[in-house]
Write a structure and sequence with these properties.
Blueprint lengths: L10 E5 L4 H12 L3 E6 L4 H9 L4 E5 L5 H15 L4 E4 L14 H29 L2 E6 L12 H21 L4 E8 L5 H6 L2 H10 L12 H7 L11 E4 L7
Parallel strand pairs: 1-2, 1-4, 2-3, 4-5, 5-6, 6-7
This protein binds nicotinamide-adenine-dinucleotide.
């Protein structure tokens, strides 16, 4: 991938960037000139080392994105370290397959908290700095599963449907401050999480329905996220872009 300096001196917060899509996004934003704050439950030291090797600053904050207290503390630490936030990529999420009859209300709420509430919480802690500078880019990870008949995912599809609704509403609320809000919807992909959670026949079956007949990999959504976090997309907001090999058509 070419690496123009489209993100020079931006500060980007990428959640879930210890691995998978988030790591690929964080690395490419750094290659394009951004400093990176990672918020992840897991160990992001490899990602930090890679970003630093590209000559950019990196901070890893260990936090659960579904915890209001931990996200508030993470936001304070990021602002103290970098002094500003320009870009937020709400990527952290989970997608365990579970039959509807095995999903109880506690589990349902947990999935909504990790996949949807987290995006609200992170937006709350970064949007003030974006408003102050009259420039901001928020990208929320959705999913193309909303357009498919994949079983045992209703809890997940509800959360990602919420992501699309939140993206549309927030785009209107933040537009007066130069902040755009968009979503990117990947397909079933061979990230660490994808390989652990999605059965091989589902990965292959979804790939066969796509126009481009191979499973996604982490790098497949990076270019779209780079566009949506750059100046080039200044007039694009409230959208959900399917970066899914041409499966779901809106
Ligand atoms: N891989 C796919 O097939 C696929 C398809 C569509 C959408 N997505 C979406 O893409 C995003 C990333 O998926 P991935 O495949 O890279 O996943 P992954 O499991 O490989 O990586 C997810 C990262 O998020 C972190 N994380 C999970 N829960 C967290 C929490 N509560 N707090 C902080 N960090 C947390 C993990 O530690 C991990 O580093 C998710 O939102 C997912 O729903 C993935």
């Amino acid at each position: 991938m070419t690496s123009p300096t489209t993100h020079t001196d931006r500060v980007a917060v990428v959640t879930g960037a210890a691995q998978g899509f988030g790591r690929a996004i964080a690395t490419e934003l750094a290659r394009r000139g951004a400093d990176i704050a990672i918020v992840d439950l897991g160990d992001a030291s490899d990602a930090v080392a890679e970003i630093e090797s590209l000559g950019r600053k990196a901070l890893a904050v260990k936090a659960d994105v579904s915890s209001p207290e931990e996200v508030t503390a993470a936001g304070a630490q990021i602002l103290e370290t970098f002094g500003q936030t320009d870009i937020l990529v709400n990527n952290a999420g989970v997608y365990p397959f579970k039959d509807f009859f095995d999903v109880d209300y506690t589990y349902w709420k947990k999935i909504q908290a990790i996949n949807l509430d987290s995006q609200f919480l992170l937006a709350k802690v970064v949007a003030g700095s974006m408003r102050d500078r009259n420039w901001g880019r928020i990208v929320n990870l959705a999913s193309n599963s909303l357009g498919l008949a994949v079983p045992a995912l209703s809890h997940y599809m509800a959360s990602k449907g919420g992501v699309i609704g939140f993206t549309r509403g927030l785009a209107t609320d933040l537009a007066p401050y130069g902040i755009t809000v968009n979503a990117v919807a990947p397909t079933a992909s061979r990230t660490p999480g994808g390989e652990a959670n999605i059965a091989e026949e589902v990965l292959q079956g979804v790939a066969n329905m796509q126009a481009i007949k191979r499973s996604g990999v982490a790098e497949d959504i990076v270019g779209t996220v780079c566009f949506l976090t750059s100046d080039d997309s200044a007039f694009v907001t409230g959208q959900t872009i399917m970066a899914d090999g041409g499966l779901v058509r809106l």
